[in-house]
Every structure is written in C-alpha cells, then in structure tokens.
DNA sequence: AATGAATGAGTATTCATTCAT
DNA sequence: GATGAATGAATACTCATTCAT
C-alpha cells in the first residue's frame, strides 16, 4: 500500500531491468556473431537465464532485433534533437557550434562502439525486407533532418543560396556514413575523417 | 586427349556457360529474397536444373555468394580502370571528362539495377564476418582508387594543395555510397543526387 | 486445532468451492478447445486466478482431467441409480415408467450440453491409455447396469425369455451412444432419435 | 525409353511404396501410442528412415494423420459398396445375404485389428476440431448408407412400413459402434455381439 | 554428367511445473 | 495461501549437402 500509487513496483522495475538486459545481450550477440548465427539460447546463456525466460519478454527472435534497433535509433535521434535540433540555433556562431556538437555526438555513437555501425549497417539490412525498409526509413529520416539543418543554414545566409538542400543532405549523410564505416577498421582515423568531411563540406576540394 | 591443348573444348564452354548462369541466378535470388531466405533449391529451380547439379559447379552455398560478389566487384573495378584509371589523364579537361565518365559508370552500375547495391550493401555484409571483411576490403580498394585520383588532381593543380587525400577520398566515396542507397528508393533522383554530389565536392556548401 | 473435529471449516469450504470451480473451468476448456490445446494457464485465466494456484488444488494437468471425468461419470451414474436402479421396480408399469425416466435423464445429460459427449467420447479416449481404459470401464459399467435392467425385465416376463442380456445390453448402449453422438450435430432430432431407439428396442424393425 | 510410356516408372513405384509404408507406420504408432505421444521421429525410426525423409512425403504431422484416416475410411466404404451397396439386391434372400455380408465385413475390419476402432474412435476425434468433424462426417455417411439400406428393405416389404429410416439408421449404426468398442476388450465376444445385434434389430427385445 | 531422394544437424518455440516472494 | 516469474525438456520442421542411379 505504501508505494502502490507509484506506477512501478519493485517487481515491475525488476522486469524492466531484465528486459533492458536482454536487449543489451541481444545487441552484443547480434553485433558480434551476426543475427543469423545467434541463437536465442546464446542470448539467454550470456545473461545466465533460461531461454524460456526470453520468451516471457519478447515474442520471438525477430521481435527482439526490432527492439535492439529501436534502441539504437533512439540513441541516434536523441543526439540529433533538443539542443541539436535543426532550428535550435539562430546565429552563425551557434550554427557552427551545433554543427560541431552533432559531429561529435555521431562520432561518439558510431565511433566509440563499432558494434553500433556493424549492427545497423551490416547486420540489420540483411535480416529481411521489413528490416531493410526500416533502415532505409532511418536514412530518410536522417536526410530530412540534415536537409532541415541545411535549409536553416541557407536562411541564415551561412550556406549557398542555390543549395539543393534535399540532395546535398543525402550527400553529406553519405559522408557521415562513410566515416562510420571507416571507423570499423580505422577507429583512430576518425578525427581526421571528420575534419576532412567538414572541409569538403564547407570548402569543397577544388583549388581556388 | 585430342583437344587437351586447347584451353576450351565445347564441353568446357558449356560448363562455363552454366556456371555463369548459376552465378546470375544466385545473384537474382540473393538480391530479391535475401541470402538466408534463398535455398540452393531456389537457385536451381530458377534455372530448371536439379539442385544436385549446383554442387558440381560450386562447393557450397557460401561459395556461390563469393562468386556473385566477385562478379559485381569485377564490374565495378572494370568501370574504374583503363581509361578511367587515376593516372590515365594528364590535362584538366581530360580530368574533368574522366570524372564525369566515372560518375556515369558508377551511376549505371548502381542505379540501373537496384539489386546491385541491395546485394552488395544490404545482403552481403550480414552473411558472415569473412564477407563483411570482403566488403570492407572493397571500400578500402575504392578509397585507394579515389585517393589516387585525388592525388593526381592535386598534382595537376586542379585540387587544393593541402588536401588530405586519404580521408577526403573516404568522404567522397561515402557520398557515392549515399547516392547508391538513395537510388534504392528514389531512382529518379539519381541525376540530381550526382549533381549535388559534384557541387559539394568541387564547391562545398558554404556561401562565398 | 479448535475445529479440527468439524469436517468443514469456513476456509475448508472456500477451498472446496474453488476446487469445484477449477473442475468446471477445466471441463469448459477441455470440451471447447480440446485437452491438448488447453493450457493450465487457460483454465486459470478463465477463473481469474493465477496458474500457480491450480497446482495447490490438483497435482498436474493429467490429474484434473481425471476429476473432470469423475464428475461426469458421477452425474451419469446418478441418473441410473436410486429410483432408476435396475431392481427398483417390480411391476411392468413401473418398469416402463423407469425406462422412460432413464431415457429422459440420459437425454438431458448428453443432449442438453453437447460438451458432455464431446469430452467423454471425443476428447477423453485420446488423452492416454489409462484414460481410454477408464472410458472402456465406463462402457463396461453401463453394460452391466443395462444387463441388470434387462435381466430384471426378463424375470418380469416383459422381455424375451431367451434374451442374451449381456450382448443385448451392449447393443442397446450402442444405440444410446449413437444418439449422443448424433446430438452433437442435430440436437433437435434427439426426441425422434429416442423414439426410434425405443421402437427398435421393443419391436425390432421387421415387418410382421 | 522402353517403359517411359507407362505412367509409373520404377522410381515412381518405389516412391508410392514408401509413401504407403509411412502411412502404415504412422497408423501403427498413432494407434499404439496415440497421436500426441507419437513423434515424427518415432514413425521414421519404425521404418528405419531419416525423419527428414518423412517430410518429403507429407506436409507435416497433421497431414499424415489425415491420410491414415483416409485410408481407413476407404477400407470401410469399400466394404459397403459394390455388392454391398444399398440397391445391389432385389429379393429378400439377397437382402438377408447382403445384411450378413456387411456384418461380416465390418466385423472383419473392426474386429480383426483393434487398432482400427482405437484410431478411428479413440484417437482421431481428440486430435482437433477438424478431425472431429471428419469423424462426424463419417458417421453421417454411414447413417445415410444405412438409411438407404433400410429404405430399400421397406420398399421390399421386408421391414416395417412405418419405419423412421433416418433415425433408425442412426440407432443401428450405434449398435455397430457399440460392437466395435466392445471388441476392443472382448474380441472373442464379437460373434455373439453380432447375433444379439441382429436379433434386436429384427425382433426387438419384447416378449410376444 | 545430371539428378533428386535421403539425410540429420540445427533451432525456434511451447508449456507444464516449480518455488521465491 | 496465492501468485507469476523462471525454467528447460521436448519436438516439429527446414535445408544444405551427399551419393546411388
């Protein structure tokens, strides 16, 4: 009765905790051994729980990977909202600072843990058509965000007035993607990569 | 014995032909239904051959996908060599023409048949670690080629002298990758994509 | 300790009540969805109790179905004893009246609720050998009762003196069985069925 | 080329043979251990084949039991057609002879191998609703046949003119059913059972 | 050389039962 | 006493691969 008013009892909290742990363990397994090579038993064993327990928390193997991706997508979109939302800045200085923050945030997410790009870019798309579509949705979402960001830059007069924001957004996201993939093999090159990306973006490659 | 000197007898030719057809059929299946969802029986059925026959031409399921990827890699590197090799040009005009040719060729390969990027980027990396490494190798190769191309551009004075060719190459390849992925959903936007890519590359996005 | 002498305390009564409800719920489930398709969780959910609670009242899934069958067998034998016991009548008129009463009673039990024949004839025998034997025991019991009834009829001079009571009893019970099964699909035909059964029984089908 | 005209090659014949053996083995298993207690592996092991082979011949476990039942139904209807068809006789003597033949045939099918009634009456109805319906269909079919047989008897003046053929048919079939069930425990009583059945049928049980 | 019948390793999933709370 | 979270034994089914014909 004391804490019955709170929406979460201790049992409920325990439950959410285990749910979280299962998602994490599944992420580990899928990223390390691959979705198809991972059995539910592997995920359960990693947590030291019975594999029947898994099915108390998730419908089936396909279900968990959706939640794993949800989780990653949440992390990424979290990095691109709030203070980093396209319209959260209004001066050039702020714009530049935001630009740097976004780069850093993405760099941290993708670069710190190579399992993130591995799962999202290498494992997920091959799971099935529905998942491939989810990843494409994610690219579309990212393109829309970047486009909004560019539009804002054009409005501020910071970027070229004739910029094709939509397609340029996709090109820039492609560069970020390339950085993420590079980081799978050469994590140490990430800073230089980001710098190169920024230079291409702002200055192009042509001699003046 | 009579014709053992000749590299290819009629039987041998037949054999090579079927081998080729199996690779193509496997490509079709893998790209359309996915590697794991495709059975050897599906590939054989598409050709109207017995599925036992498959094993007379390829070791196993894993073997064939390697050959499918070989085939695609060959097509891509083919587009980037000969007249499009990094050092095949020596004037700015040639350099620009080559640049356009490469863009066109890649656009054709990736854009004309969405199954190519789908297999190479969405299916292959998730098959297993070895295949993921192959795809990363492919990215490295592409980066090396692009870097050589950029170096040449710098030497010619066409590109910025302080260009970080290695990392810029990866950024540019990332943009190409982004274009290829975009083409999965919006093939009609490809031309505009390429144009945006080129403008970013040569001019950057900043207002002057 | 205080009321250990009394056979039923309030708690004990509660317990018996829930026990009864579990049996009924199990009967419902088994008859509607089938024994194998029914989970203990289904039975518990129907009562709104936790499925762990089930095991405080019954040993296991196999145990409960025994009790469900017990219950039905009790209902049936109840209809065939007391005033309907084979030797409860002594005149032809009483015999006839008893005959009608038995028919009515069985008709009510089997006909009113098709789940009774469904469980007893369709579900139970397939559960396992032991249960099949129980059902055969039930047939034997019914045959013995009917045989006693026929013997009595012979003694009263109401039935043919040369009647093979044992085997005729089984034949008659077979007809009742047939009626019960028919009622699964055509409950409305039950009265006509019973009439036809009686006519065959008493008059045969041959023209005179 | 020699025998390519024949619809069945040796391979095809082999295939049909194994198919037949699987049905028989499944019948054995289902009748002896029960449908649910029987695994596909059991059926395969009984034949000394790999259990994967089973799936080359039947869709799934549910599929095979349908074929087993088909087989039994075929045997039974076979006994009730041709010379035993309701309208295959035209004189009283023939009618009686046919009656005896049918009794004999059914007695042989049900009595010789107790696994037949066990599977059909004890196992099949509890498998699932669809199978229960099949069994009810079988009862309906049998009732229709018996009714036709009785109608014919009425026309011939052999049976009571006021006979309720439909319901009487079901009563009679019930007696046959009773005999079949009895034979599970007392196969030796079958002849006496049949005789009692016939006497009830033709003469009734009442004293004259 | 081609075939496809046979094979069985491998795996996702269910559900009766237990037991700590 | 009641609960339901945890468990893992059990099993149907798939499909890559082999090999006799």
Automatic annotation (TrEMBL), chains A, B, C, D:
Residues 16-76 form the HTH tetR-type domain. GO terms for molecular function: DNA-binding transcription factor activity; transcription cis-regulatory region binding. It comes from the Bacteria. Residues 39-58 bind DNA. Keywords: DNA-binding, Transcription, Transcription regulation. The lineage of its organism: Bacteria, Bacillati, Actinomycetota, Actinomycetes, Pseudonocardiales. This is Transcriptional regulator, TetR family. It holds the Pfam family TetR_N. PROSITE patterns: HTH_TETR_2 (PS50977). SUPFAM superfamilies: Homeodomain-like (SSF46689), Tetracyclin repressor-like, C-terminal domain (SSF48498).
